[in-house]
Amino acid sequence: MCGGFTCSKNALIALNVLYVVVASILISVAVYGQASSLVTNLPIVGGILACGVFLILISLLGLAGAVKHHQVMLFFYMVILFLLFLVQFSVACACLAVNSDQQEMLAQQGWNKVNMDVKEQVQERFKCCGFQDRHIPANGTADYPSCDVIDRVCCNGFIISPRCRCEPCMETLKERIDSAFKLCGGIGLFFSFTELFAVWLARRYRNQPDPNYKEPHAIFPRKNYLY
Fold first, then answer.
1. CB atoms within 10 A of CB 76
2. Which residue has the higher pLDDT, 37 or 34?
3. Which of 5, 81, 133, 163 is deepest in the core (most CB within 10 A)?
4. Cβ within 8 Å of residue 81, ≥6 positions away
5. What dihedral do alpha carbons 152, 158, 163, 168 form, nearest 10°?
6. Is residue 24 within 8 Å of residue 2, measured between CB atoms?
7. What is the pLDDT of residues 48-63, one digit of tens each?
């Protein structure tokens, strides 16, 4: 019978195994989002990464509680999972709500915080130069490394001219950053609703009696029985 104790137990175990897989996907997507931009300041994507790691830990707690039918484990599992749902739902909505201007602002903050070595790596990896343009301040010190070498790569080794230059890094990374936000938000939002189902299932399973459980009873020697 699917509504019975065994079915609830197996369903909860299967759901937590699924959460381990989901958490791995969230971590992979968040790492891809950060790696694809490399220097952008993406705290929201970092929140998805934290949720993925925490979801693995809570899934292990749920697995142990489901296998042992442990009342305390299942109680804390329900409470923590519901709180995780609130956090993950909020973070996923924030990822989907971030517009291009906000993404550019976050990317600019990340670009300003890193050193020249990291900026040079970004320019070499994505074949770009500078963040938004090649503006050089009045003091003559640019906020990005020299683009002489990378410009030759963009121009296939030809003589550098104003018509042949690498694009700014923001233009190159714009689509990658946007796809990372949308992918993180979509996956996080979809799987956050399953956590509500897990809370309900854990509560139901926790209140079901174990048919294999035998209540302890005292055993007295036969000679002590009263006749």
1. 15
2. 34
3. 81
4. 58, 62, 195, 198, 199, 202
5. -10
6. no
7. 677 778 888 888 898 8
